[in-house]
Every structure is written in C-alpha cells, then in structure tokens.
Amino acid sequence: MQSRKLTVILILATCLVGGLASMQLARNDLGALLGAPSRRIGEELYHDFNIKKNEVHTVVITNSTGELAEFTKRKGVWLMQSPVRDRADYRNLQRIVYFSRHLKVEDIIRRQDTTLEEIGMRATEAHRGRFHITLKDSAGNSLADYRLGRRSAWHRLNEKEGTLTETFFVRPAKKSQKDNIYVCSAPDIINPSVRSILDRGFERLRDHHPFLFDKTALSDIIIKRGGGEIVLSRTKLNAPWRMSKPLESRTKPETMAGLILGLFELEAVQIHDRKSVTIPPGPPGLEIDLMRFGSTGARIPHRSKMTVMPPKTADADTVYATISTRPGLVFEIPYKPVRGRMALGQLPLTVDQLRSRTLASLDIRVLESITIHSLRQVDPIEIFLGSQQGNRRWMLSLRGEAAPANEVALGALLHGISNNEVLSFVSDAARDLGAFGLAPPQKRLLLRGKGNTSLDLLFGRGDDGKFYAMRRGSSTVAEIDSGTFTAIAAGHHDWRDTLLMPFSIVDLRIMKLEGPIRAPLADPALTLNYDFLDESWTARQFGEDVTAILDTQKANHFIKLMESLRVEKWLGETSPAAQRALLRPTFRFTALFQQISIEGVRIGMRESSFELAPASRSSRNRFYYGRLSGDPHYFVITTDAHREITTQLVDHGGSVIQAPTTK
Questions:
Q1: 3-state class of 246 per DSSP?
Q2: pLDDT digits over 339-372, tens only?
Q3: Which H or E element spans position 623?
Q4: Could you tell me whether strands 104-110 and 131-136 are parallel, antiparallel, or unpaired per DSSP bridges?
Q5: DSSP H or E run through 25
Q6: Helical (H) or strand (E) element with 644
Q7: Which residue in 148, 202, 454, 617 is a FRET match for 85, CA 20 to 30 A apart?
Q8: C-alpha 475: how far from its chain's center?
C-alpha cells in the first residue's frame, strides 16, 4: 500500500517538475530549476524590456543604508516623490532608464566565488555599497530589477571608436539569477556613469536646473537689470530672433543660441528650502522671463520667471535665485565661471552682446534690386535682377540700357554688409550725423526685395577719419572698417561686367595680332582669317602666307580664350598711370566681325580692338593696363591673362615668329 502511495507521489512530483521545466524551457530560462544563468555573455540583461513599448512610469532606488528615492513620470516630466516632493532631474532619470535597458553581459561570476564586499554590494571603507534599482511600468509590472555594485577593473574595448567602456558588477533581483554576479558594460553615450550619479547622493537627483523648457519652442526672453529691460522675441517657430527693446535690432544668431543653451544648462550647486534662507530686502539684481509657443503655434501666456538676488559681496562665487514654477525653493547658482558648470556671469545678457554686429541680414533669394548713391556720382547706380539670353542674372542699368553687372563687385558688397561685423556701436541716440559723415552720407545703399521689403543704409567718413554706417530711420551709428566701406563700389565703371568684349565666333572673320608694335604696322602683324562653317584657318605675316606653320590647335584655343577673356578690374576715365603706360603699347588686338541684319542680310563689318601695356617696364611687373577702342574707361588684366593672350601661334622652322611677343 505504501509502495503505491510512494509511486503516486513520485509520479505527481515528476509531472510537476516536468511541467515547470517545460514552462521554463518555453521561456528560455532554466535558472529556477538548475541555477544556470538566464543571460549569456554578449546578451543584454533586460533585452525583453522595450523602452518604446514599455514606458517607464516609476523608478525606485535604495542604497545600502536603506535610504529610498522614488520617482514617477507625469506627462513627460519626472517628479521626485521621496525623500522630498519636487521636480526630478530629467536627464539623470533618463540616463538610469537607458543604462538599465542596455546593460550588456560581459562575464558571469558564481556567487560562491566572490564576496559581496569585493564586488561593492556591501558597504566598506572603500565603497558606499550597492544601489537597488527597480523600474516599473504604469501597471506596476517590473521592467528591470537589480543591485548595482562598484565599477570593475576590467574595461571593454570599443573597437569602432577605439575607446574603453566601463563595466559594473550587477546582481539581478530575480530569484533564478541569485547565484550569479554579472559583469555588465553600459552604453558608451552615458556620461557621467550612473554609478557616479548615484554616489553623489539622492539630493542630486532633484532637478537643480531652475528652468525646464523646450529649447526650440521659446517665443520670448525678457531680461531686466538695473532699471533697464531687453526684450527678445520671434514671430513664430524657426523665425529669426529680434530685439524690440531698448531698441529695434536684429540679434546675433550665435549669441542667441548661446543664451538659450546657457539658460537651459544653468544649474544650482545647492537647493535650499525657502524658509531656511534669509534674502535681504531690496530690488533683485536680475530677472529673466521666458515664454513659449504652444502646440498650435500660439504664445502661451504662462511665464517662467527667474529672480536673481545681488551677490552678497563683490567677490561672491554664488548668488541666490528663485523661480516662479517652484516657489518654495531657493537655488544657489554659480556666479563666476566654474569648471563643468554654466555660470550666470557667462550668459550674454547685454544689448551689445545680443544685437547683431552686421549691418544687414540678407536672403539673396528675395533680393530684386540695389541702388547706390554717391556724393561723387550725379546719377545713381541701378542694379537689378533681370535676364540675359533666357538666364536670370544681375544687370546694370547704364545710359538707359541694360548690361550684365559685375558679379564680383556684387559679391563683395553683399559679403561686406552681411558678414563683416561692425567694430563698435558708437551711439544709440546720435543727433549730429554730420560729425560721422552721414549728413549727407558719402554713400547710400538701398536694397529692395520681394513683398516691398527694403533696407536703406547710409555710409560716411567722420571728422576723425573713421568710417561709420547706420540704417536710415534709426538713431544707432556703428563704426565699420575701411574694407566694408570700400566694398560698396560707387563708380559706374566698378559695376561693368568683367567680360572684356563681346566676341562671336560665328561672325568672326579676321583677327590681327601685333606685338611688338612698330612701323610699318602691317609688317610684323599676324593676320588670321577664320571660316566658322568649315573651321578653317589662313594666316599671313611679313607679307607671306604662313598657314602651313600655324598651330591650329593653339589658334582654336585662342578663340575660346577671347570669348571668355575677363578683366581684373575696370578703371575710371581718368587714370594717369594707365594713360601714361598706353602711350607705348606693347600689344594690340583687332578683330573684324560680319554684321547681319534681322532679315539676315549682310550689312558690313564691325571692328573691335584693344591695346595693352605693362604697368612697369621692370621684370617684376605684376599687371597690365589696357583700353578698348572707343571706350573711355581703362582696365587692368593679370600677367597670367597677358601670358595666355600672347601665346605663340606660328613657328618658322624652329625659330618662333608669332605676333604676340613683348619687349
């Protein structure tokens, strides 16, 4: 009878154990039965925990002495419930969540092969002991539950980055893993490590940042200090920040970005209960108000206001501050720069720091025309966005006709007013503009854009010899460098297209190259006839046919060169140096083009020519003067351009006889 009962008991026990084994095997976890680790080396300790699907709602942390800190998440904000009720440090709580999810098993140690003191699970003189960390979802389900010991001496090599990753002793609270200690590595991106954060004490898990805001959603920043007020705002998300008080001005984008980041990173060294701190009576030293856009893009009337007390002494390292969103607290904020922390004294909080130090903020895509007035020019220079041969480009209105504008001069102008920073703002309430050379201005620049937008800038040279500029209608005068002043070319010739001459291969008939120039003119000249239809050449020099020794490849390249030949710079009608040099030209180029009427009838020939002469007869000459026939303006070309123009085209049996050579 007893044997039958024993048999039944053994059968039931076998079924029970088999059932449990089947269940654990189905879960890929035999640890409850065999004591084997449920995670292998290379696996993540809590890979079943999905941060996106299993949102963490609660974090509970206890230390070796039994102190407990509990945090809950409400509407995306972490709140500390214990040991005090306050806003938690969002960044550190997120570090703990990410750390817990991505603990990676690097090694496994049997519990019997080590001691709790050795792995930092029990407090010693060298280590504070373990931290028990539990993460739960909104339903109270455990997502991660483990004890965190000290950092191990071994580091994992990150082969991709070439860096070493810290590892920690971890003991999961799960019963099936109680006999195993895991050596786990943490994600490299977490800095400082979670262990370092916790070792500072639970007090540091409170949010020590006075402000909590979305850096991209701010709409207004109001700074009040010493009776003055600075108002910074923008009309919508992604719109540029502007200053509306104490003066209308654009802001400096880099400085605004630094201010916003600085306010976001500003962190107290200590948080005090309001009742425990005595704040002396008197006006605050500084007030900063923040407003933001809501999800609909409208301004939210609620403000976050930080009030900063004056420093107790002139050499004080910290100051007290209160924040409207946490009224029961006083924040002790660094006043002087501290390594690793943002200090109040590092924030750009003055008008000169925040306002833009360039004369204009230009979007060339909306710019349509530019008008330049100068005291030295009777007629203004008109530059507008037009078209040439079906292509949009900048044009110059000259003598009632439109011609391509000098885009090099345009680039220099736009760069000068939108990139060059002013040297200083000399006055925000200037009255005597004559002292700055601005009444009347020596130069006036009017830029018009789409939608009737415009920018009117005045430039002048003051009685002190310095250069100044201001926006028309403003009272702010800025000192600028001479380069910005000269970048605004005020002569009509400065805006001529740098293309030397219209050169049509189709209509080209004859080219004559003379150099050196000496009587009789026709004697040394190389005369080239070109037929566009069959791309053939004939050449004559010294009264002889030299077609056979003409290098046609070089001749073809020479035509392409003349099509695109550009001057380095156009000069005015009066240039004594150019006039003097061209009394003895060293090279002359002449071209004859067939003229054809609209009806396609030949109506004669058009001649175009220019002469060149070195600026100096020295071997160190660096440029050449030139002048087109019938054109009152001189021009300058580089020695490289001159070298290409005077390339050798004809060779008489090894002895070069070609027109363009110079003495």
A1: coil
A2: 888 999 999 999 999 999 998 877 788 899 999 9
A3: strand 623-628
A4: unpaired
A5: helix 2-26
A6: helix 639-645
A7: 148
A8: 31
Neighbours of 317 (CB within 10 A): 14
Instruction: Show the tokens assigned to 295.
Output: 């999800």
Rounded-to-integer distance, Cα 205 and Cα 199, Å: 11
Output the six-digit token pair for 184: 């786990």
Q: How far apart are CA 138 and CA 21, in angstroms?
A: 31
Q: Determine if residue 275 is left, alpha or beta; phi over 0 gives left, psi from -120 to 50 gives alpha, anything else beta.
A: alpha
Whole-number Å distance between alpha carbons of 603 and 605: 7
Cβ-contact 241, 365 below 8 angstroms: no
Q: Which long-range contacts (CB under 8 A, 24 or more apart) does 126-132 make?
A: 128/63, 128/64, 128/199, 129/63, 129/64, 129/65, 130/63, 130/64, 130/171, 131/61, 131/62, 131/63, 131/64, 131/195, 131/198, 132/60, 132/61, 132/62, 132/63, 132/173
Q: Which of 119, 146, 142 is nearest to 132 (CA)?
A: 146
- Number of Cβ within 10 Å of residue 408's Cβ equals 16
At residue 387, the pLDDT reads 79
Q: Decide if pLDDT at 591 tops 90.
A: yes
Lookup result for tokens 């539990």? 134
CA angle 234, 237, 240 (to 5 degrees): 45
Instruction: Tell me: cis bond preceding 337? Omega within 30 of 0 counts.
Output: no
Could you give the CA distance from residue 433 to residue 427 in angstroms, rounded to a whole number?
11
Rounded Cα–Cα distance for residues 470 and 433 (Å): 10
655 compared with 454, residue with greater pLDDT: 454
| Tens digits of residue pLDDT in 316-330 | 999 999 999 999 999
AA identity, residue 258: G
Average pLDDT over residues 415-424: 92
> Would you say 441 and 377 are in contact if contact means Cβ atoms under 8 Å apart?
no
Please give the helix or strand (H or E) that residue 304 lies within, else none. strand 299-308
DSSP state of 60: E
pLDDT in tens, 398-418: 777 888 999 999 999 999 999
Q: For residue 398, give Cα distances in angstroms to 382, 395, 456, 493, 496.
A: 8, 9, 22, 10, 9
- At residue 200, φ and ψ (nearest 5 deg) are -75, -10
Whose CA is closest to 510, among 591, 587, 588, 589?
591
Q: What is the mean pLDDT of residues 487-505?
A: 90
Under 8 Å between Cβ of 97 and 194: no
CA distance 359 to 414: 10
Count of CB atoms within 10 A of residue 270's CB?
11
CA separation for the pair 381, 632 (Å, rounded): 18
DSSP 3-state assignment of 1?
coil
Closest CA to 449 of 556, 371, 534: 371
Give the mean pLDDT of the chain: 87
Nearest to 589 by CA among 575, 570, 605, 608: 608
d(CA 523, CA 520): 5
Q: Which pLDDT value is given to residue 456? A: 94
Instruction: Please give the Cα distance from 496 to 503 (Å, whole number).
Output: 16
The 10 Å Cβ neighbour count of residue 160 is 7
Which DSSP symbol is given to 32?
Answer: H
Q: How far, in Å, CA of 576 to CA of 128, rounded?
A: 87
Q: What is the 3-state secondary structure (H, E, C) of 418-429?
A: HCCECCEEEECC
Q: Based on the number of CB atoms within 10 Å of its own CB, is 247 exposed (0-12), middle (13-18) or buried (19 or more)?
A: middle
CA atoms of 535 and 552, how far apart (whole Å)? 10
Residue 485 one-letter amino acid = F
Amino acid at 279: I
Give yes or no for a cis peptide into 280 (omega within 30° of 0): no
Backbone angles phi, psi at 7, to 5 degrees: -65, -45
